[in-house]
Specification:
alpha/beta, Rossmann fold, Alpha-Beta Plaits, 2 domains, six-stranded mixed β-sheet, four-stranded antiparallel β-sheet, about 35% helix, about 25% strand, elongated, binds adenosine-5'-triphosphate, ATP hydrolysis activity, ABC_transporter-like_CS, nucleotide-binding
Length: about 325
């Protein structure tokens, strides 16, 4: 048992009939860490989050949550809160009534945060007395977060928490999660958005078809990625293309992106070869007006790790 870890999973398996949703998954989440779970559709993220929330029981493996081994029973482990597949709310009740009902359900002895306090934390004070029936997806997500916060969790488990949030809402929720983590709460969240993960998480676990293909710091994920496609805009596109064609370690790629631009040059290269190309362009009197990776290094690494391998047929 490791008390520094909020989650310690070893060799977790979970099947639904013939479908192997989780296939020997290991996961370590440190206390006070925001840990991202990513992977293509059907990779097993929701299944794993469901196990952490006690919504399902693993078929095999060992799971410790907040230092306590999880028993083979469908109960939410002590100190854990969150939701998968959207929060469960009573549509005919207001936001405040939903939270008050939750407090009542937990009983007088359970430590809870104040309803007004959590509504304020997630930015729903102005609509606290509106029926949740009329809430947008983003507002429901925020209320779901409030419902989790009211239980004062030590481990918060969230499935796509930024779903439906506008940019201001996302920033707000990111602020809430970052403050919670700074106060020692661990957060495990799934997301398809690399920019959200980069903004929030110190570590990520990438799942692909039920297996862990990467787990560790985001910086390591970026560093592990090798060649990337870069888009260059220069003062002399033809001369730049000729130079790039002759440069060592540089491969010219067709620009088929959404921002297709005949003037743009897209090259595939390692960073040192790209550096050398930039130096050559400048020496040749060609001005470099724009240089950026076509997709972010993290997204490129994610795609490289999760895309099905070519079978060669
Ligand atoms: N209750 C269930 N009954 C049958 N199969 C299930 C069930 N829940 C999940 N699965 C299957 O298990 C696999 C993993 O599903 P899961 O929902 O965990 O993936 P996910 O990574 O959350 O996907 P997404 O990004 O689409 O939400 C999928 O093949 C899915 O069809």
């Amino acid at each position: 048992m490791d008390t520094r870890l909020a989650v310690r999973a070893r060799g977790i398996t979970k099947c639904f009939g013939d479908v192997v949703a989780l296939d020997g998954v290991d996961l370590d989440v440190a206390r006070g860490q925001i840990h991202g779970l990513v992977g293509p559709n059907g990779a097993g993220k929701t299944t794993l989050l469901g196990l952490l929330l006690g919504l399902a029981v693993a078929d095999g493996g060992r799971l410790e949550i907040l230092g306590t081994p999880v028993q083979r029973a469908l109960t939410a482990p002590d100190g854990v809160a969150g939701f998968v597949d959207g929060p469960g709310l009573y549509p005919s009740l207001t936001a405040r009534q939903n939270l008050t009902a939750l407090v009542a359900l937990r009983g007088r002895d359970a430590g809870t945060a104040g309803v007004d306090d959590v509504l304020d934390q997630v930015g729903l004070t102005d609509v606290a007395d509106d029926q949740t029936r009329g809430f947008s997806l983003g507002m429901r997500q925020r209320l779901g977060l409030a419902a989790a916060l009211i239980t004062k969790p030590r481990l918060l488990v969230l499935d796509e928490p930024a779903n439906g949030l506008d940019p201001a809402g996302k920033k707000h929720v990111h602020g809430v999660l970052t403050r919670l983590a700074a106060d020692g709460t661990s957060v495990v969240l799934s997301s398809h958005r690399m920019d959200d993960l980069q903004a929030l998480c110190s570590e990520v676990t990438i799942l692909a078809t039920g297996r862990v293909v990467f787990s560790g710091p985001l910086s390591k994920l970026a560093a592990e990625n090798r060649e990337l496609d870069y888009r260059l805009l220069t003062s002399d596109p033809q001369a730049a293309r000729r130079l790039a064609g002759d440069a060592a370690g540089i491969r010219i790629v067709d620009d088929t992106g959404a921002r297709h631009d005949a003037e743009a040059l897209v090259v595939r290269a390692l960073v040192p070869a790209l550096d050398e190309l930039v130096v050559q362009l400048v020496h040749a009197g060609i001005a470099l007006r724009e240089l950026a990776p076509v997709v972010s290094p993290l997204e490129a690494a994610f795609l490289a790790l999760t895309e099905p391998k070519e079978t060669g047929r």
